[in-house]
Amino acid sequence: MRIAAQNEVRNPMQKPSKAISMVAAMGAMAATLVLAGCRQDMHDQPKFFPQRGTTLYADGRSVRPQVENTVGRSQLHQDSYFYTGLVDGREADGLPFPVTARVLARGQERYNIYCTPCHSRVGNGEGMIVERGYAKAGDFHTARLEQAPLGHFFHVISNGHGAMPDYSAQVAPADRWAIVAYIRALQLSQKATQADVPSGAHVEPLSSIAEREGLPAAFLGEWKIPATAETGTPTHQPLVLPSPGGDGSARTNSQPAASTGSKPAANNQAAPKQ
Ligand code: HEC
Q1: Interval between CA 99 and ligand 1 midpoint (Å)
Q2: Are 268 and 142 in contact (CB under 8 A)?
Q3: What total number of domains does the chain contain?
Q4: Is residue 168 part of a domain?
Q5: How far away, in angstroms, is 138 Cα from ligand 1 center?
Q6: Whose CA is nearest to atom 40 of ligand 1?
Q7: Is residue 232 assigned to a domain?
């Protein structure tokens, strides 16, 4: 009785209608073909594996040497001053394109993004990161940097300088030059006199701007790292950086490094800024 019941249940399954079983078989075949097709193509296509040899080339190397006398797309740097700031291996002066208000505005924007964290908005090297214990960044208002050729600033952004990392990955060459132009304007702005503006131009003293805008008195003071600033080190001691020369000597964030640039280090260790 029990067996018969099971058979009754199983019977419809064992003998499905012809049409259904054909559709199922075709579906399965199609799926197999599609899947198998994909896998074969992807797995068996001829290709090189990085850093592995090959029998295709006589020298057995899958990594091919660059073809001589060819230049990769977008790697043709014909205007070498634009890309290096150097002429005959020496930092040169001048911008590779005309300075316009637009270039300066772009430079100011990029400078405020990439440089102020360490150099501060006024460029005295006492930005927020320095306030938190990083090595004192360069003060652009020293006699040495005021006289430095523009190529020097381009070179520093492109290659770094002592404790400063390079910003070549973040800032494209045209923007580096825009920053350089803005730094020079920043330098001039700190020593500007009435005689520097064309006669008749309206000059408003900072104090009256501060008064009009309702800014606190501290706005007129010079930007300095507050005495309460943390050093950021667990021991609350100044951060000690390894010497850039790797000679084992160390320096702290209260001792700016001697210049490693090609210019004479006239006055980087300058006394407190005027
Ligand atoms: C992470 C902090 C940091 C940032 C961001 C930074 N700098 Fe510096 N910069 C330094 C430090 C630190 C020094 C001093 C390096 C030394 O003397 O070892 C320095 C030095 C310099 C100097 C002086 C080089 C010399 O001849 O003494 C220039 C110019 C300069 N930076 C430009 C820039 C510009 C332009 C930017 C933005 C694109 C920038 N820096 C962003 C930390 C920074």
Answers
A1: 23
A2: yes
A3: 1
A4: yes
A5: 5
A6: 115
A7: yes
3 state SS of 12: helix
Q: Does residue 178 line the site of ligand 1, with CB under 6 A? A: no
pLDDT the model gives residue 271: 37
Which residue CA neighbors atom 16 of ligand 1 most closely? Answer: 162
Q: Which residues contact 217 (CB under 8 A, 6 or more apart)?
A: 210
Closest residue by Cα to residue 145 from 84, 186, 95: 186
pLDDT tens string 243-273: 665 555 555 555 444 444 443 333 333 333 3
Alpha-carbon distances, residue 158 vs 37, 121, 184, 262 (angstroms): 50, 20, 17, 15
34-70 exposure pattern, b = at least 16 Cβ within 10 A, e = fewer: eeeeeeeeeeeeeeeeeeeeeeeeeeeeeeeeeeeee
Any domain includes 148: yes
Spacing, Cα 145 to ligand 1 middle (Å): 11
Using only C-alpha atoms, what is the Rg of the chain? 34
- The residues facing 230 across adjacent strands are none
- Residue 115 CA: nearest ligand 1 atom is 37
Measuring from atom 29 of ligand 1, which residue has the nearest CA? 153
**Any idea what the CATH number is for the domain that residue 93 is in?**
1.10.760.10
Indicate whether residue 182 lines ligand 1 (CB < 6 A).
no
pTM (global) more than 0.85: no
Atom of ligand 1 nearest to the CA of 153: 29
Residues in the chain where the model's pLDDT stays below 50: 1-10, 12, 255-274
Is there an atom of ligand 1 within 6 Å of 180 CB?
A: no
Would you say residue 25 lies in a domain? Answer: no
What is the extent of the structural domain holding 146? 80-192+209-252
What single-letter amino acid sits at 139?
D
What one-letter code names the amino acid at 187? Q
Atom 1, ligand 1: which residue's CA is nearest?
Answer: 118
